[in-house]
Design a protein that fits this description.
Bound molecules: acetyl coenzyme *A
Number of helices: 18
Shape: globular
Structural class: mainly alpha
Helix content: 40-55%
Strand order of the largest sheet: 3-4-5
C-alpha cells in the first residue's frame, strides 16, 4: 500500500499524487494542481495548521501525553514546575537543571510595583479577574522592552521565566483587588502552588502555610491543564506569535481565547448549571431539556475526545482527597447523578459525549474556596507553560505568518450611493 493519495481535477483530467506524512497531506502540494481552490474548513476541524512535538492526544482512546510521558504518570509522580520545564525544553530536567529552573521561576515572582499600583488598581471595583489578567499580561510587555528580542535565546528565556513566575502573582492580585483585599507579596520560601495559595488567602498571619493536600491537589490540576495541543487558546497564541509579536502580547491573546465559556469558562458554566439544577430529583428533567435542544450539558463533550477525557478520571480521584479536607461539595451528588444518567442515555452515547476536564475541576476549585470568576484564571496559570512551549516551537520552525483564505459569499460590485439617496 502506498502512503499517498491521488487527487484528480475533473475539469481538466489532471491528477496529482501527494504523499501522506505524519497522517496529513500538504496543502502546498494540493495547490500545485488546484491553485485558487481553497479547502473550506470553518473551525479547522480537519486542518493541521502545524507540526508539533509538545503534546499528543488520541481522542478515540482517551490518551494524553506531554513530550511522550503519559498524563497519568506525570499527575501521579511529577509536579507542575517540572512539567512546565518538560513542555518547554522537551526533556525532564536533571536534579541540577530543576534546581536552577525552580530558583529562576521563584526569583521572578514579583511584579513591578507600577503594574499593581498604576495598572491593576485602575480597574473598576467589580472587574472580572480574568478581564484583569488578560489586560495585565498584555501590559507586562511595556515593562520588559527586551521582550521584542524574540530571536535572542537569552531574552526569550527571560520572558518565558517571567511569564511562568508572574502569572500566579497577577492572578492572585486580580482576585484580591476584586474582593477589596490588600495585595499579598509572593513568599519565595514557599513552593509554586503554596506561594499562590498564600497570595490568595493570607490575611494577617506572618506566614500562610497552605494545607499540603490542597496544595498538591492544585499542583495536579495545574499539571492536567498545562497543555492540550492545538486548542483554541494555543491556536490564538500561535496565530499572534506568527506575526512575531512579543510573548506577553501573544499570551494576552491566548488568555482572551481562554476566557470564553466554550473553552476556559466551561467549569464556571458547570457550577452554574449544577446550581440551577438544584437537586438530584431535577436531574432527569434537566437532561431531557438538553436533549430537546435547550442548552448544553456543560462539562460534557469535546472536539477531540470521543471517549472519557483522561484528565477527568484523574480529577475525579483528586476530588475525593480534597473533599476529605474541605467537606464534600454539595453539588457533587448532582454531578454524579448527571454523569450516570447521561452516560446511560442514547443521545449522549451516540454522539460520544463524555465528561471533559471541566466537569469536576470546578467542584474542586469551589470546595477550595475559589470564587467562580477565578476558574478561567486558574486555568490560565498552568496553560501558560503550554502556550510558551508552542510559541517557542513556532519560532524555531520559522513558521509563516498565519493568513487563511476565505470563500467570498458577499455582494457583487456595486456603486456607492450617497447617504441622502439611500
Ligand atoms: N450537551 C449536549 N449536546 C452536545 C454537547 C453538550 N455538552 N456537546 C455537543 N453536543 C451535541 C451537539 O448538539 C451536536 O448534536 P447534533 O449533531 O444533533 O447537532 C453534536 O453533539 C456535536 O456537537 P458540536 O457542537 O458539533 O461539537 P464540537 O466538537 O464543535 O463542540 C464542545 C465541542 C464545544 C466542547 C461541545 O461539546 C460543548 O459545547 N460542550 C460544552 C462546553 C464544554 O464543556 N466546554 C469545555 C471543553 S474542554 C476545554 O475547553 C478545556
Amino acid at each position: 500500500m502506498t502512503e499517498s493519495i491521488t487527487i484528480v481535477d475533473n475539469r481538466t483530467g489532471n491528477q496529482l499524487e501527494i504523499p501522506i506524512r505524519h497522517g496529513g497531506v500538504a496543502a502546498s502540494e494540493w495547490q500545485k494542481l488546484l491553485p485558487g481552490i481553497w479547502i473550506f474548513d470553518p473551525g479547522l476541524t480537519a486542518t493541521a495548521a502545524c507540526e508539533s512535538s509538545v503534546s499528543f492526544v488520541d481522542g478515540e482512546q482517551g490518551i494524553l501525553r506531554y513530550r511522550g510521558y503519559p498524563i497519568e504518570e506525570l499527575a501521579e509522580r511529577s509536579n507542575y514546575l517540572e512539567v512546565a520545564y518538560l513542555l518547554l525544553h522537551g526533556e525532564l530536567p536533571t536534579a541540577a537543571q530543576f534546581s536552577e529552573w525552580r530558583h529562576d521561576v521563584t526569583y521572578h515572582t514579583y511584579i513591578h510595583e507600577n503594574v499593581r499600583k498604576r495598572f491593576l488598581e485602575g480597574f473598576h471595583y467589580d472587574a472580572h479577574p480574568m478581564g484583569m489578567l488578560v489586560s495585565a499580561v498584555a501590559a507586562l510587555s511595556t515593562f520588559y522592552l527586551d521582550a521584542k528580542e524574540i530571536f535572542d535565546p537569552e531574552a526569550r528565556q527571560r520572558q518565558v521565566i517571567r511569564l511562568i513566575a508572574k502569572m500566579p502573582t497577577l492572578a492572585a492580585a486580580a482576585h484580591r483587588f476584586s474582593v477589596g483585599m490588600p495585595f499579598v507579596y509572593p513568599d519565595n520560601s514557599l513552593e509554586f502552588c503554596s506561594n499562590f495559595l498564600s497570595m490568595m488567602w493570607k490575611v494577617a498571619e506572618p506566614r500562610f502555610d497552605a494545607n499540603p493536600t490542597l496544595a498538591r491537589a492544585l499542583d495536579i490540576l495545574f499539571i492536567l491543564h498545562a497543555d492540550h495541543e492545538q486548542n483554541c487558546s494555543t491556536t490564538a497564541m500561535r496565530v499572534v506569535g506568527s506575526s512575531h509579536a512579543d510573548p506577553y502580547s501573544c499570551c494576552a491573546a491566548a488568555c482572551a481565547a481562554l476566557y470564553g465559556p466554550r473553552h476556559g469558562g466551561a467549569n464556571e458554566a458547570v457550577i452554574r448549571m449544577l446550581q440551577e439544577i438544584e437537586s438530584m430529583d431535577n436531574v432527569p428533567a434537566f437532561v431531557e431539556s438538553v436533549k430537546a435542544g435547550h442548552g448544553r450539558l456543560q462539562g460534557f463533550g469535546h472536539r477531540i475526545y470521543k471517549s472519557y477525557d483522561p484528565r477527568a478520571k484523574i480529577i475525579k480521584r483528586t476530588a475525593d482527597e480534597v473533599f476529605a479536607i474541605t467537606g464534600k461539595n454539595p453539588l457533587l451528588d448532582i454531578a454524579l447523578k448527571l454523569e450516570e444518567i447521561a452516560l446511560a442515555d442514547e443521545y449522549f452515547t451516540s454522539r460520544r459525549l463524555y465528561p471533559n476536564v471541566d466537569f469536576y475541576s470546578g467542584l474542586i476549585y469551589q470546595a477550595m474556596g475559589f470564587p467562580l470568576e477565578m476558574f478561567p484564571v486558574l486555568f490560565a496559570i498552568p496553560r501558560t507553560a503550554g502556550w510558551l512551549a508552542h510559541w517557542q516551537e513556532l519560532l524555531d520552525q520559522d513558521s509563516k505568518i498565519v493568513r487563511p483564505r476565505q470563500l467570498f459569499v458577499g455582494s457583487e460590485p456595486r456603486p456607492y450611493v450617497p447617504i441622502g439617496d439611500r
